[in-house]
Amino acid sequence: MAQYTTKYVPTKSLSLDAGEIDDVIRIWSEEGAILHSVIPKVDEGSTEGYIIVLEITDVE
């Protein structure tokens, strides 16, 4: 059975968001996690942040 974790990246600016999302994915990938999805958190038409869903795998 797969295990999942979520990480939330709040919105600051478009250029910073891409870098922060990339950093989170890269750091967790080095630990053996696999990116499942990136979901924008939207409130009243504005993106407030991103929810990153990662599948946790065993690294041997």
In short:
The protein is of the alpha+beta class and 60 residues long.
- Whole-number average pLDDT? 87
Number of helices: 1
Write out the strand line-up for the largest beta sheet, numbering strands in chain order. 1-3-2
Q: How would you classify the helix and strand content by structural class?
A: alpha+beta
Describe what you observe in this structure.
- Strands 1-3-2 form a three-stranded antiparallel beta sheet, covered by helices on one side.
- Strand 2 and strand 3 (46-56) form a beta hairpin.
- The protein contains one helix and three strands, in the order E-H-E-E.
- It is α+β, with helices and mostly antiparallel strands.
For this entry, give a set of tags.
single chain; 60 residues; 28% helix; alpha+beta
